[in-house]
């Protein structure tokens, strides 16, 4: 007597053993397509002519909260607020969440999908079929079905593994894009804050200049009443006062615009920042000689470019896997009966297991075109990665040059301010004593005012160059390397 299909144990069939072997082969099988290897970057070990001290490469790390080096509580609060409420940054966070969902979706393809199925039919069979019904067969037939079904693609050629590799790299790229956005937002807030404080310092200085020129105009008026000053002196004094008034109005405008920018960046429409002075901000420490170029690896945009390259490199394997046969495992288990009450009884059990294979034969070059597209995208990502590295290296070199030269200019401008201040003081004394004309006083006032404004502008540029260096490095540098302290020699130590 032939054994019924319901009595066969599904896990003891030769087909099942074959499928299990195929699944094990898939787990240990090769993955087509190139494995990722980081491209070589022809960059020097350090940014300066000074050689990197042994141990510095390993000790230099990136400090994320670089803006705290300015030691300004208001700036710290503004950056923290922006990192939590900036709209561009919130959008970047949402893109990361999207990438996380795509990565989970790619990872789920390694596991079978199990579905619950159920159906019920009530139908009348025709008596006019080519095969007539027997007299005992009912014309009205009922059918009830319920069970579980599954399908699983056996990853023999690494298609699913490459797709998962690509999705995970895309996820990392989106996270680094978010980090790059955080760096950009922090940089914009800091630069806008420096502009605000520069406007505050210039406004304070120009308001003092305005008061001084009002007093000068009083002196000129008194001297004219006494007959020792000409109408020309009065006109010159009034014109100089008007110039200072115009400067004050323009500086107020600049401050308001900087505050509005900070309000937008921090998501605070009614932001109101009390006045401060740029000159009171401390200069952050300068980078040590031989700053390692390996710090570039911490730049989020460089890391983003590399992970994008990894993703497109894996996509080549996905495209190549389409050239090979695909195997799919399917299975069903459940019950079938005419009556719903008998659906789950032992006699109603039904199951099936199968293996499907698909082999592309003629696609008229479709798969080859997809492979070429994947290779082209990988080449584009490679070029973008190489460009990102070289651009980052240039950014750091430019920032280092600006930082050094602005420091020299800052010291020169400070000396200029001191000289111009002494010149103005002497000119005013000599004018009141009648030794020089008012034009000499006016020239001294203009020179002093210009020197003070130039000093503030140079100090702002110097601080901004520090911000640019922080951004170029992906953050501030943290020097954890402590060189050995030389032993001090006393009289008893042989020389």
Overview features:
Outer membrane efflux proteins (OEP); four-stranded antiparallel β-sheet; disordered N terminus; single chain; 6 strands; alpha+beta; 9 helices; 495 residues
Structure description:
The chain is α+β, with helices and mostly antiparallel strands. It has a single domain, classed as Outer membrane efflux proteins (OEP) (Up-down Bundle), CATH 1.20.1600.10. It has 9 helices and 6 strands; from the N terminus they run H-H-E-H-H-E-E-H-H-H-E-E-H-H-E. Helix 5 runs antiparallel to helix 7, helix 5 packs antiparallel against helix 9 and helix 7 packs antiparallel against helix 8. It is elongated, with a radius of gyration of 39 Å. The N and C termini lie far apart (108 Å). The N terminus and C terminus are likely disordered.
SSE map:
Layout: H1 14-28, H2 56-59, E1 60-63, H3 73-85, H4 87-108, E2 113-124, E3 140-154, H5 159-225, H6 231-266, H7 300-321, E4 326-337, E5 349-358, H8 366-432, H9 438-472, E6 476-479
Antiparallel strand pairs: 1-6, 2-3, 3-4, 4-5
**What is the average of the pLDDT values?**
80
Instruction: Provide the CATH topology.
Output: Outer membrane efflux proteins (OEP)
Percent strand: 5-15%
CATH superfamily: Outer membrane efflux proteins (OEP)
Report the oligomer: single chain
Spans of at least 5 consecutive residues with low confidence: 1-19, 49-59, 480-495
Number of domains: 1
What is the rounded distance between the termini?
Answer: 108 Å
Number of helical segments with 4 or more residues = 9
Largest sheet: 4 strands, antiparallel
Using the CA coordinates, give the radius of gyration. 39 Å
| Helix/strand structural class | alpha+beta
Overall 3D shape: elongated
User: Which CATH first-tier class would you pick?
Assistant: Mainly Alpha
- The CATH architecture name reads Up-down Bundle
Strand tally: 6
Helix content: 55-70%
Widest beta sheet: strand line-up: 2-3-4-5
């Amino acid at each position: 007597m032939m054994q019924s299909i319901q009595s066969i144990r599904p896990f003891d069939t030769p087909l099942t053993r074959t499928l299990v072997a195929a699944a094990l082969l898939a787990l240990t099988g090769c993955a087509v397509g190139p494995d990722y290897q980081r491209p070589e970057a022809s960059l020097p070990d350090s940014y300066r002519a000074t050689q990197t001290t042994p141990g510095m490469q390993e000790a230099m790390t990136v400090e994320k909260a670089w803006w705290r080096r300015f030691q300004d509580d208001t700036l710290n609060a503004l950056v923290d607020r922006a990192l939590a409420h900036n709209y561009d940054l919130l959008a970047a966070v949402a893109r990361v969440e999207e990438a996380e969902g795509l990565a989970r979706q790619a990872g789920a393809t390694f596991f079978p999908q199990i579905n619950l199925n159920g159906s019920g039919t009530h139908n009348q069979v025709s008596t006019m079929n080519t095969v007539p019904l027997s007299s005992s067969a009912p014309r009205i037939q009922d059918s009830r079905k319920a069970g579980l079904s599954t399908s699983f693609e056996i990853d023999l050629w690494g298609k699913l593994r490459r797709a998962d590799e690509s999705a995970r790299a895309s996820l990392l790229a989106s996270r680094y894009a978010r980090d790059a956005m955080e760096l950009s937002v922090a940089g914009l807030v800091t630069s806008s804050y420096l502009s605000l404080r520069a406007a505050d310092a210039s406004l304070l200085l120009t308001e003092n200049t305005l008061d001084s020129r009002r007093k000068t105009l009083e002196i000129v008026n008194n001297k004219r009443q006494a007959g020792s000053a000409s109408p020309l002196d009065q006109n010159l004094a009034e014109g100089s006062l008007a110039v200072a008034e115009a400067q004050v109005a323009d500086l107020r405008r600049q401050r308001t615009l900087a505050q509005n920018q900070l309000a937008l960046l921090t998501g605070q429409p009614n932001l109101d920042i009390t006045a401060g002075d740029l000159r009171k901000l401390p200069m952050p420490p300068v980078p040590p000689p031989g700053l390692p170029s390996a710090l570039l690896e911490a730049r989020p945009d460089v890391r983003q470019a590399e992970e994008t390259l990894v993703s497109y490199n894996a996509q080549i394997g996905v495209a190549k896997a389409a050239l090979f046969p695909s195997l799919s495992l399917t299975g069903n288990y459940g019950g079938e009966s005419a009556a719903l009450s008998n659906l789950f009884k032992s006699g109603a059990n039904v199951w099936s297991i199968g293996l499907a294979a698909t082999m592309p034969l003629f696609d008229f070059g479709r798969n080859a075109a997809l492979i070429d597209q994947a290779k082209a995208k990988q080449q584009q990502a490679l070029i973008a990665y190489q460009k990102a590295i070289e651009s980052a290296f240039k950014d750091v070199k430019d920032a280092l040059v600006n930082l050094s030269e602005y420091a020299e200019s800052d010291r020169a401008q400070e000396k200029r301010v001191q000289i111009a201040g002494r010149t103005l003081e002497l000119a005013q004394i000599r004018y009141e004593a009648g030794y020089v004309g008012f034009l000499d006083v006016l020239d001294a006032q203009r020179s002093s005012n210009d020197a003070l404004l130039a000093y503030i502008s140079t100090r702002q540029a110097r601080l901004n160059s520090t911000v640019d260096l922080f951004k170029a490095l992906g953050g501030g540098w943290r020097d954890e390397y402590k060189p050995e302290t030389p032993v001090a020699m006393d009289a008893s130590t042989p020389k």
